[in-house]
Design brief:
PvuII Endonuclease, Chain A; 27% strand; 280 residues; Rossmann fold; alpha/beta
């Protein structure tokens, strides 16, 4: 092969054999200590989404298993380092989120990556996220992309920056986030499973689906950048969604629809009427 005996900056994609039924294994890494940190919450939201699609997920918590600084006494024999590198080697993909400190990734994030090499993550995809106390930008994301290219990993094109992160999550860490690239902002709740009765359906939407999170965030992108973000209270979302879902319910329940699941879209007009503008 052309690349076998030559130096390269970015190596070609790892060859993949025939597909199997083995779930994709995804490791989540945070540039802050503890899963209750804002970056930890971001990573775990992404992991939860991946798990719902059938992935096997793991979150490495640097608070429980801290990684030493590279070069400090005893670091090369550290058991956490050995476990971390073995775990990274066994995973197929990664979700990463760092806070932005002084225009770049956190020290925790950089030190985490200092223990990874081509042999652990080369040719593997990375989904990148960052959190900011103020307005969002792509400084930290760009720096992580450069670093990962040097490690021969593959940062995916889509990336996410959450500004004003202190307002992004409920007190218990939950939030509903939806985005669109349409010309006008909207939010769609797809794949809502149909329950046995409308009473059960209403209870499911209130307790397990829409009402599960107090705050619902809707973002609109243009040319890969967030240009508009709105926040709606779950009670306002329910006031919009429930009548629309109830109208669909009989047909969905009877099995007379191409898609047996309920799907509801909240329009720009409805968002503007009851939402709070965060950006735009």
């Amino acid at each position: 092969m052309y690349f076998e005996n030559r130096q390269y900056i970015q190596k070609p994609p790892t060859k993949v054999s025939n597909m199997t039924q083995t779930p994709v294994r995804i490791l989540g890494l945070s540039g802050e200590y503890r899963p209750t940190s804002k970056s930890g919450m971001m990573v775990n939201l992404a992991l939860s989404c991946a798990e719902s699609k059938g992935a096997e997920i793991i979150f490495w918590d640097c608070a429980e298993k801290p990684l030493p600084f590279v070069g400090e006494d005893g670091c090369w024999e550290n058991e956490n380092v050995k476990e971390f590198q073995t775990l990274a080697s066994s995973c197929d993909a990664f979700f990463v989120c760092s806070p932005e400190y002084h225009g770049t990734m956190s020290g925790v994030m950089k030190n985490t990556f200092d223990w990874l090499y081509d042999k652990h993550i080369g040719g593997k995809p990375f989904g990148l996220m960052c959190t900011l106390g103020g307005m969002q930008n792509s400084n930290t994301l760009n720096h992580m992309r450069i670093m990962l290219r040097w490690l021969h990993a593959w940062p995916v094109p889509e990336q996410l920056a959450i500004g004003h992160v202190k307002d992004a999550f409920d007190e218990d860490g939950g939030a509903e986030y939806k985005s669109t690239i349409a010309n006008s902002i909207n939010a769609t709740y797809n794949g809502i499973s149909v329950q046995d009765t409308w009473e059960d359906q209403e209870r499911y939407l209130i307790e397990d689906k829409i009402g599960k999170y107090k705050n619902h965030y809707y973002a609109r992108y243009e040319d890969g950048k967030i240009v508009e973000v709105w926040k709606l209270d779950c009670n306002d979302v329910l006031a919009i969604v429930l009548p629309k879902a109830q109208k669909q319910y009989p047909k969905k329940k009877a099995g007379n629809a191409k898609d047996p699941r309920i799907g509801v879209t909240i329009s720009k007009k409805e968002i503007y009427a009851v939402g709070t503008c965060i950006l735009g």
